[in-house]
Write a structure and sequence with these properties.
It is a single chain. Among the domains are: 246 residues, Beta-galactosidase, Chain A, domain 5; 166 residues, Immunoglobulin-like (Sandwich), CATH 2.60.40. By secondary structure, it is of the alpha+beta class. The protein is globular and about 75 Å long.
């Protein structure tokens, strides 16, 4: 009898304990297990606990609250916009009410979560913090650092997971390079917060710390020297953390593309025209820009490089910085003459501008405004912010907005059809205060200013973003540079392709991405093939040599830029995927793109010695037989399923499989 009572008591206790574990199933063998007693949750993918004892943290002023600090929690579920939402509401002990919500994706691969706090404001909110995470893979495990922007020649880094000690911006991948299985974690809303993903590895191969948080600032990566601004109540009575997506994918590359397709940075500008490409003056001409030289470039492409055209038979001829050498005070007639000349040749003129910076950094009247420049400078900790040699302007100040309207109006009057906008990261800096009292964070200021800029352009120009935040710029640009300035050297091609290796998925967020100006100069033939390959692999071609003066770059352009097989790749304007993802902060050598019945394989050798490599159909995800054509040499060969090739030093090849 005694044993029966004991067994019954154990059974009852077990039922009581299990009743406090709320299970949220999604997909096949995936669960979120929330422990109402502890205020923490586990994430299970494919029956394996990937994240253990995760909890939420919110900071309001000097007060810090976490979901594990409360004594009272209530569980509820409901449907919202067709999605099942599960909520845990924590309260009591004099703490502000905290709500954790989990939204389930019908596809079963991902879910979304965020935390709400009943407070006036917060500058740090984390819906997921834990000290135990494990992707349960054997071999080459990696953690991906995604930088906030593409400024100052920053690099992506796929670090070994065990030694990872980093904060990725907005999104990361934790994956195994051998199996390609991986966990993707990314912020889905970028209207208020800079989101960081803190990753710390351990000798065991597991993570000893993982946190996803709104409130990320860093001197190197976000260029801030002060804390994140305070996010005030976004919904009545509550502050909301970033909404994050968490998903497990059989191929981490598919996961990053899935993230890019679904990231809700706002309504994106559509581009229904042909893939844009052309020429930009910053590649070689720079401060030597004159009207006659610009016209001579137009003549070169019109008369001597006739096949280098977009699919709708045009080119963008873009005047970069120093275009103001063609302006005399308020006289824009020479710029209009340039635009008219482009139009007579069937080309589209482009202009350059950095709308949120002041290069002069001196007190003076601002164009198109009654304000002075110093009225619009922002401060951090009482000091003006100089970044990349330019002073940051307040994107919300009426002086900045009036200047935008004035100069964009001038550009449109001249007839420019494209604008390259640069140094946009200045608009996302935190500040001691902004002119608009409703704006408290750098991200909010960025959106305010960019919305004014796009409104002024009013659909009359192709918008091409250069140095800019990687993800939050997407709603405001048709096209974006993948990295920072790069010229003709093979090492600079390597720098560019580091960004393409680990940021190719941005091509799913923007209409097009590109590798910046392609400068040949008098470089060796192989190095120039590699330079052009960097553009084709990234998505579009913006060339940059000074074609107004004689040089071997004329012949190089006439050969490489008129190769129909290569132009077919450029016309598609789509980024290639990396084959491997284990190169740290270096570029990958191997890239692949499939479309219809064709597959393109690109291999770049950055070294000063030959690269011998065996292409294997299974690893590249290609058919095990077929005809291959090398597009530079035009050599045709058979692919038997495995092929060993040798790439000369500082060179590249591109194969097309039919």
């Amino acid at each position: 009898m005694k044993n029966r009572v004991g067994a019954l008591l154990v059974c009852c206790l077990g039922l009581t304990a299990s009743a406090q574990i709320k299970d949220i199933p999604f997909g096949d063998n995936n669960h979120i297990r929330y422990d109402l007693d502890r205020g923490s949750y586990d994430i299970v993918f494919n029956r394996r606990t990937v994240v253990k004892d995760a909890y939420a943290i919110c900071r309001s002023g000097d007060r810090i609250d976490s979901s594990i600090s409360y004594r009272s929690r209530k569980w509820s579920s409901h449907r919202r916009n067709g999605k099942r939402v599960y909520a845990v509401t924590s309260s009591g002990d004099g703490r502000p009410e905290m709500v954790q919500e989990f939204l389930i994706d019908k596809r079963g691969k991902t879910f979304r979560t965020y935390v709400l706090i009943k407070a006036a404001g917060s500058n740090y909110m984390s819906p997921l913090t834990c000290s135990q995470a494990d992707i349960h893979e054997q071999g080459d495990d990696r953690a991906l650092l995604v930088p906030f922007d593409n400024d100052a020649w920053v690099r992506y880094n796929a670090a070994p997971l065990a030694s990872a000690d980093m904060t990725s911006s907005e999104v990361t991948a934790l994956y195994n390079n051998d199996t390609r299985h991986g966990l993707i974690i990314g912020a889905m809303m970028q209207r208020d917060w800079k989101t960081g993903i803190r990753i710390k590895g351990s000798d065991s191969g597991r993570l000893s710390h993982l946190s996803v948080f709104g409130g990320y600032t860093d001197k190197t990566y976000t260029h801030d020297i002060k804390a994140h601004g305070t996010v005030t109540r976004q919904i009545p009575g509550y502050c909301m953390s970033p909404m994050i997506m968490i998903g497990w994918f059989d191929d981490w590359r598919e996961g990053m593309e899935d993230y890019a397709k679904n990231a809700n940075a706002g309504p994106h500008l559509s581009w229904t025209g042909a893939t844009p490409f052309g020429w930009n003056s910053w590649g070689a001409m720079q401060d030597k820009l004159t009207l006659s030289k610009a016209k001579a470039v137009v003549d070169f492409f019109h008369d001597s490089c006739e096949r280098f055209r977009t699919a709708d038979s045009t080119l963008y001829i873009d005047l970069d910085s120093y275009w103001d050498l063609l302006r005399q005070g308020e006289d824009y007639s020479r710029l209009k003459e340039f635009c008219d000349y482009c139009e007579t040749k069937g080309f589209r003129p482009g202009i350059y501008w950095a709308p949120f910076v002041d290069w002069g950094k001196s007190p003076r009247k601002m164009e198109g405004s009654d304000y002075n420049y110093q009225d619009c400078w922002i401060t951090q900790n009482g000091n003006f912010i100089d970044l990349d040699g330019a002073r940051a302007l307040d994107p919300t100040h009426p002086g900045t907005i009036s200047r935008i309207a004035y100069l964009i109006g001038k550009f449109k009057e001249c007839g420019f059809k494209m604008i390259k906008i640069d140094f946009l990261g200045h608009a996302a800096l935190e500040a001691d205060h902004f002119y608009q009292s409703t704006v408290n964070t750098g991200i909010q200021a960025f959106h305010y200013g960019m919305e004014k800029l796009v409104s002024a352009i009013n659909g009359q120009m192709l918008i091409y973003a250069a140095i800019s935040p990687n993800i939050i710029t997407a709603p405001y640009a048709h096209m974006r540079r993948i990295a920072c300035d790069a010229y003709s050297n093979i090492s600079e091609t390597g720098y560019t392709l580091n960004s393409t290796t680990y940021g190719w998925w941005l091509g799913k967020l923007y209409n097009h991405i590109d590798a910046d100006h392609i400068v040949f100069k008098a470089g060796p033939a192989g190095m120039n093939r590699a330079r052009l390959t960097s553009a084709l692999v990234t998505g579009t071609v913006i060339t940059g040599d000074d074609y107004s003066v004689p040089g071997v770059w004329h012949a190089t352009a006439q050969t490489l830029l008129q190769n129909k097989d290569l132009l077919d790749i450029a016309h598609a304007g789509r980024a290639f995927r990396p084959v491997e993802g284990n190169t740290g902060d270096k570029p990958e050598n191997f890239f692949v793109r499939k479309e219809g019945k064709r597959t393109w394989l690109a291999i770049v050798n950055y070294d000063d010695k030959a690269l011998e490599y065996t292409i294997r159909a299974d690893r590249w995800g290609i058919k095990d037989h077929g005809t291959m054509k090398e597009l530079f040499s035009k050599k045709v060969m058979e692919f038997p399923g495995m092929l060993t090739i040798v790439i000369p030093p500082a060179d590249a090849v591109i194969y097309r499989m039919d």
